[in-house]
Write a structure and sequence with these properties.
The complex is a heterodimer of chains A (about 525) and B (about 525). With about 525 residues, chain A is mainly β. In chain A, about 10% of the residues lie in helices and about 25% in strands. The longest helix of chain B is centred in the N-terminal third of the chain and has 15 residues. Classes of the chains: A mainly beta (about 525), B mainly beta (about 525).
Chain lengths: ~525, ~525
């Protein structure tokens, strides 16, 4: 009989690797939307090798910084922020509405790569320089040629930028990035919210810092947010990269002088990436040393009730049905354009964007959307509150506001609990000190397999899990990515639903996959890692 | 039984390790309580129940099986099969039972349990099969206080007789109503054709709002049931809409191999007796809190605002009240709580788009390394069948490698619409590689729902739209109404894919993603028969 099929073995190995990689970090890294803030940017296009979880180094091109950026790295507290001469995706440019922007591009690609350029879809761009006027925009010639682009962003939101020269090859090679336009005016209702007070509370590990770039995505009352994440989706067909590499490295008298012979069809990608990395690399910290040319990660965390802004960009050439487990996403804007009900436009015009549980990424298109998890409607108390032998198992109360949530005590560990389910037990006769009298009996732990992000019980938080499963629950802590006594959050997979794309070169798991964690208030979400 | 005080004192950990577990080392087991805190009375006594709705239950097997492709090929698949509601499923209906239908002693009356149920192995007939209870449910010899009660204890032999290689394509159809509690038991019967695999399985209820990680069915984030065991998922029915479900173990493999199914939730509006808009406004106000928890919880908050829109940006449990002044008839069938009757329909058809890569399925049966980069579907299916099987009435039967005949594909995709009536197509897609388009030739589609949400903006304006085609990728769903106003009985139209290469069954150049739409004088909404 043949050996056990490859992907099982590797799957088990990778699972071990995943656990090892994550447990090396005291707290798993979180994400934010890091980049360079400013109005004037000196970018270049250059070549480097990027890495994949299967050990491959893939020859790629990407935008980077020629000199340390004149702007500042944001958010300020993310350590290790840097901008190499080449990164994939390119540096995220953080600009402000109505403030003119200048981007100077220097072509540091190998000579045989030819000219390069940048397109800024959605903006009215003026390009100046000595380089040729290409098909779509003015270009920079090889060996240090430059071109300067200027535009004034009039609308906030998420935008992309990418090469306008031989785009089928240059975008595939990695020449793309994001632009975040912050609103010039933030609505008052988006400042001084109870979620801000909750974030500032110290539960014993220090108060959380604020890693947002702004307090609202648009000058609109419904665009307030507490967390933000940027996700850029792209693919790699390694044969294309290899072909370009061979041309660049060719020596002798019969070498091609340009990239015209690189076939970009048929297209057979083997790598699928979020922010330039495949899973599990995407869940390592921003600016990780082991990926010097892939600085950005995809590792979202939030607390119950927090409004999370998703900035989603389709780079690359394929659509991807990006599915967010855990709840729907309210689409605010497409390509930075707010979707609003008919009538006069003001910060209070009702939203018209759809609710989607799968936010399809389309090449060249961006989505700004809001996600929020509260547990509303589960019909059982996720904190394991309730009565046992007639007495409440905790002292927690839940006082509903006008919308039914517990927001009057931002320092409570069950802040933002959905009070309609408070004290509703899940388990009929539980082992531990959680509410009893509920509708279900949990299975024997011996007949189930535990996942690496399983917190050890159905309940949210280390305190609740310890009450439910004892101080040494199954699985024992320390070998899992979501410690039962510490984080014990609810993990949700955010991934491309073209399931073939959550693989890395035929190995599952990999590709366009991230785990999103809804963490209890007692767990400090630290996006500085 | 151990005293609860013992556990409360923290000796729980030692007891877990050393003592016999009160929960009892289990293998197979079903759960379908006859009463719960939310439904202390079932069937419902409105005065006793804090919520409307019923207790509904379903048991499914996780394993493998065979299905028949459009070119006649018998292909191997991983899949879920029915272990309850078998008679309903053989009739093309959802297999979901109310608890009184589910909790039936298998040993009472005519023996309904045989290998290959519900297919009569001697004559391929399913019409004589009548049992809808949970397969395997037998009296519990150790029940307290009286032995012999139905506690969920099952006879594993009965489960294995029916469950082995009974995978359906698509997986068993589920349908519940808002306010129901749904107990879904997944029983892992193993994959007989793959003795090298010890696969767990899970159920991911795709799109369930505010899902808990524990019941979300993602094995990396929670728990997955081993071979020889049962896990019962608990859901309070989410907001009305068309959802779907699938296994989440190694999704690139398990979904391609066929572990995909449909679930939809009917709106509370179907049970409204008076004005639909006022009912919706009241529901929006009440959605800020539930009635008082009988165990001693929190009383409901004061009615929330005007009830004309949502109290949070995701509109959980709420729908913006319509700007339209149209009214709808009470007692009709609706897709959503629209408040104006705009999603009314006469007959509904769940349609799931999927694709099979025959190379991958062959490799999946023969222990070889699987290629995900080269995955390419060659069979394109609506409800597990390719044209012309999509329009063959009744269940399809496939023989598995042990010679047993199984009802492998119970759902045709024939769409019968009464003249001047409306059909609701609940369309979902779980393809793992590419987008697929379904077009309507001759009768326009109105898309009324997207991702299980009514298309309406936060001001109550109608955002539904007319189109000739819809395009979906795996992980997406939408609702389409085909309106036959002005059409005459006897007319025939087609739903087909303009991805013309998908109008094929592997090497056969005509087939694939296509089905027929018939305009009838009347249509029986349960049997879907054209009359």
């Amino acid at each position: 009989m043949r050996a056990m099929k490859t992907n099982i073995l590797v799957r088990q190995l990778l699972r071990g690797a995943t656990i090892a990689a994550v447990s090396l970090l005291a707290n798993a890294a979180q994400a934010a939307a890091p980049g360079i803030a400013g109005a004037s940017f000196a970018l270049d296009a250059a070549a480097a090798y990027i890495t994949q979880p299967d050990g491959s180094s893939i020859y790629s091109w990407g935008y980077g910084c020629t000199t340390p950026p004149a702007g500042t790295f944001q958010p300020a507290a993310v350590p290790g922020a840097n901008c190499q001469q080449m990164q994939l995706p390119g540096p995220t440019l953080i600009v402000t509405q109505n403030v003119p922007v200048t981007v100077t591009l220097t072509n540091n690609l190998p000579a045989r790569a030819g000219n390069t350029s940048i397109l800024f879809p959605g903006f009215n761009v003026t390009a100046t320089g000595t380089g040729p006027v290409g098909l779509l925009t003015r270009e920079a010639v090889p060996a240090g040629g430059t071109v300067t682009y200027t535009f004034t962003p009039t609308q906030p939101g998420t935008h992309s930028y990418y090469s306008g020269t031989q785009s089928d090859l240059q975008i595939e090679m990695g020449l793309y990035g994001a632009i975040i336009v912050l609103p010039s005016t933030v609505p008052t209702v988006c400042t001084g919210r109870t979620n801000d007070t909750a974030r500032a509370h110290d539960f014993g590990n220090g108060a959380e810092s604020d890693f947002r770039l702004a307090q609202a995505a648009f000058n609109h009352n419904d665009s307030c947010y507490d967390r933000e994440y940027l996700f850029q989706f792209s693919e790699i067909d390694p044969r294309i990269h290899r072909a370009a590499e061979e041309i660049v490295n060719c020596t002798g008298t019969r070498c091609p002088t340009n990239m015209d012979t690189v076939a970009t069809e048929p297209y057979l990608p083997a790598y699928y990436m979020i922010n330039g990395r495949s899973m599990p690399d995407d869940m390592d910290p921003n600016y990780s040393m082991q990926y010097p040319h892939q600085p950005y990660n995809g590792n979202p965390h939030m607390h119950p009730g927090e409004l999370t802004l998703l900035r989603i960009i389709g780079q690359g050439r394929w659509q991807h049905p990006f599915h967010e487990h855990g709840n729907h996403v309210r689409v605010l804007a497409r390509d930075g354009n707010l979707l609003l009900a008919p009538g006069a436009v003001s910060p209070t015009t009702p939203l018209a964007g759809p609710l989607m549980f799968t936010t399809t990424t389309t090449p060249g298109q961006t989505i700004d959307g809001i996600f929020q998890w509260t547990g509303k409607g589960l019909n059982w108390d996720v904190f394991g509150h309730g009565l046992k032998d007639g007495a409440p198992v905790t002292a927690d109360v839940c006082v509903p506001d006008a919308n039914g949530y517990y927001t009057s005590a931002p320092t409570a560990q069950n802040y933002y609990e959905w009070c309609g389910d408070h004290n509703k037990a899940l388990e009929s006769k539980p082992f531990g000190s959680v509410g009893s009298g509920g509708p279900v009996t949990l299975p024997d732990p011996n007949i189930v397999a535990n996942g690496p992000w399983y917190s050890g019980s159905p309940y949210l938080g280390g305190e609740a899990t310890t009450r439910a499963a004892g101080s040494t629950p199954i699985p024992p802590s320390g070998t899992v990515a979501n410690s039962p006594t510490d984080e014990a959050g609810f993990a949700y997979m955010w991934h491309s639903h073209n399931e073939r794309e959550i693989t890395t070169n035929n190995i599952f798991p990999g590709g366009m996959l991230m785990m999103m964690l809804v963490d209890p208030r007692a767990y400090k979400i630290d996006e500085s890692k | 039984m151990f005293s609860t005080r013992l556990f409360g004192s923290g000796i729980a950990a030692a007891c877990l390790a050393l003592c016999a577990l009160p929960v009892a080392a289990q293998s197979f087991k079903v759960q379908c309580p006859t009463a719960t805190p939310s439904h202390p009375s079932d069937p419902a006594n409105p005065a006793a129940n804090p919520l409307g709705g019923r207790i509904k239950c379903q048991q499914i097997s996780g394993g493998d099986g065979f299905a028949t492709m459009g070119d006649g090929t018998q292909t191997y698949l991983f899949g879920f099969g029915p272990l309850s509601g078998l008679q309903k499923m053989a009739s093309g209906l959802p297999g979901t039972d109310v608890q009184s239908e589910f909790n039936v002693d298998n040993t009472s009356g005519v023996d309904p349990i045989f290998i290959g149920a519900p297919v009569d192995q001697s004559n391929l007939d399913v019409s004589a099969y009548s049992f809808n209870g949970a397969i395997g449910l037998v009296p519990d010899p150790q029940s307290e206080p009286t032995p012999g009660a139905l506690t969920g204890h099952v006879d594993p032999r009965l489960i294995m007789d029916v469950g082995v290689m009974n995978a359906n394509q698509p997986a068993p159809l589920m349908a519940i109503d808002e306010d129901d509690e749904f107990f879904l038991t997944l029983t892992n019967v193993g994959q007989v054709m793959r003795p090298d695999l010890f696969e767990q399985h899970t159920v991911h209820f795709h799109g369930y709002p505010n899902a808990s990680a524990f019941y979300d069915g993602v094995p990396d984030a929670s728990i997955a049931i081993n071979i020889g065991g049962s896990f019962t998922y608990y859901y309070l029915a989410p907001d009305a809409g068309t959802y779907f479900w699938h296994c989440h173990i190694s999704p690139p493999e398990h979904l391609q191999m066929g572990m995909v199914g449909q679930i939809y939730v009917r709106p509370r509006q179907n049970r409204v007796a008076g004005d639909l808009k006022n009912a919706l406004i009241a529901a929006n106000q009440g959605a800020a809190g539930y009635p008082a928890n009988p165990v001693g919880g929190v009383t409901v908050a004061a009615p929330n605002g005007t009830g004309l829109s949502c109290s949070d940006i995701l509109c959980t449990g709420q729908t913006p009240a319509p700007v339209s002044t149209a009214t709808g008839a009470a007692g009709a069938m609706y897709a959503y709580n629209d408040g104006d009757g705009s999603t009314r329909y006469d007959v509904e058809y769940p349609i799931q788009i999927h694709g099979f890569d025959p190379n991958f399925h062959f490799v999946g049966m023969t222990f070889n390394p699987e290629s995900f980069t080269d995955m390419k579907d060659k069979y394109f299916m609506l409800n597990g069948r390719s044209y012309p099987d999509t329009v063959a009435p009744g269940t399809m039967v496939t023989q598995s490698t042990d010679g047993t005949l199984h009802a492998s594909q119970p759902l045709p995709s024939i769409i019968n619409i009464p003249a001047n009536g409306r059909a609701l197509l609940r369309i979902s897609d779980l393809d793992v590689t590419e987008y697929q388009t379904l077009a309507s030739l001759g009768i326009p589609m109105r898309v009324v729902g997207l991702n299980a949400r009514l298309l309406r903006d936060m001001a109550g304006n109608d955002m539904t739209y007319l189109t000739n085609s819809i395009t979906l990728a795996g992980g997406e769903s939408l609702d389409v109404i085909l309106d036959a106003t002005g059409y005459a009985a006897g007319q025939k139209f087609y739903l087909y894919t303009p991805n013309l290469d998908h109008l094929s069954n592997d090497a056969e150049n005509f087939g694939g993603l296509m089905t027929e739409v018939n305009i009838c004088t009347t249509v029986n909404p349960t049997t879907k028969a054209c009359l």
